[in-house]
Predict the structure.
Amino acid sequence: MIYVSLLAISLVLTSGLGIYSWRDRITPGVTTFSLMMFVGTFWLLTITLMLLSSTQSSALIWYRASFISIATLPIFLLVFVAQYLQSQLITPSRLILITVVPVLTQFAVWTDDQFHLFFEAVSIAEKNGLMVLHSRTPSYWFYFHTIYSGIMLFASLAWLFVHAIAQFSIFRRQSIGFIAGVLVLAVPNFAFAIGLIPPDLIILPFCFILTCILFFWAIFYHRLLNLVPVVRSKMVDIMQDGMVVLDNGNRIVDINSTAKTTLSISNDDVIGQPAERVFEPWPVIVERFLNSHETQTEITIPSNRDELHFDVRITHLFDRKNRAAGRLILFRDITERKEIERRQELQLEKLYGMALDANPMTGLPGNNSIAAAITRALNGAQHIGVVYTDLDNFKAFNDKYGFALGDDVIKFTAELLARSIAAADISNSFVGHIGGDDFVLLVPSEKMNQVAEFILAEFDIGVREFYSDDDLAQGYISSTNRKGEREDFPIMSISIAGVDLHQTHYKAYIDVNDACAELKKKSKTKPGSAYSVDLRVQHE
């Protein structure tokens, strides 16, 4: 019964591997590996039931059932290798095609009593209390099945081996452990199939135990099921950098998809072509760098729309004997980065100019920046309104309360204008300080009235905080006017002029400035805080 005990151990090990690997089925190939282990478990189970059968006929049924696993295991192996290597070779249509032979094998096996396609004769006899295969005479489909399975199996292992030798050592050890485990199972069983091993010699449990040991080594020591290699071709083709490899004769020996797209190469006939032909759109590469040593530089290439910028790196390649083998050219499109840098430089220049032009008291842009902003608005397509503000009776307040408190009123006004922008929920605006108590705002035309009304209301409330209770009670202050005479001046108010640049006929900054000055005078003729807007409409 030692064979049955060994079969039981094999069943536990094989099914255990299938259950354990199923946990990591998200990893490429692991689901197929797990199914492969379950198919192997079914093979062991059918052979165990054959050995323990009470009659020859029931033993023959279980022997035939074992060919379900024997015929399909090479297919599972090929699919696993393709998934492990992350290859797209095994498509659904190809998978259906390669399973035709295993399906026909099942037909041949289960109709053998009628057609004798698989075995011309097969007999089972009792030996040491177990039903074992006594003799068999293979038919033509048996040989076809054996050759087909052998091709599938050894082609899969060869495919895996060729890729393994080009990978890192951990992936090589994974592959070696897996290949050795498959060969330990496959080679003795192929020897059994072609008659090199007697039919009544039970080798299956020994093979499976050794296979499981090698699989355990690959899985637990080298992480076979949770660390898979990235295929070089896939990795290179998904690179965002263009890659071209030249040999010592400056011929193309490798090129990735990004490089083809960038260089407008539409076919695959580029391999072996001179680099001068491939880099024809980039003559600067040919002229300056093609025969140079290691280089890292930036180049500019003219294009139909605008200039393109690339970061280019050229590196020498060496073989294992440290002999020059060619060069690697990597290039990255940095056009977007260059455009961002250009905009940042312009913004810094603008900010620097505004800093030089800024009003020292409020920090707001001064006259030059105001003129530039209005000129841009006149030339732009957006609907922009200009809001000009001026304080009434500010000089009288300054004379009585002093320059320090007068400066506070100016700062209060600047803060109020900023709050008016926020209250109107305007994301793109401009606030400038002409000087003294004069300010300019640029806002969307449809928000102009809302901003002005907010300023009027809030100014009249906020400005009272700067007056004494006595002056507020009488509603005016006494001060000396410009003629040197005593005069009563009302509580400060604000005059606002509004000009919609889209609706009116202004062509230059000076026109807008004159209109604002005229409207401001109109507002000042009104008692208290007032707002005047230019209602003239542009005639086409």
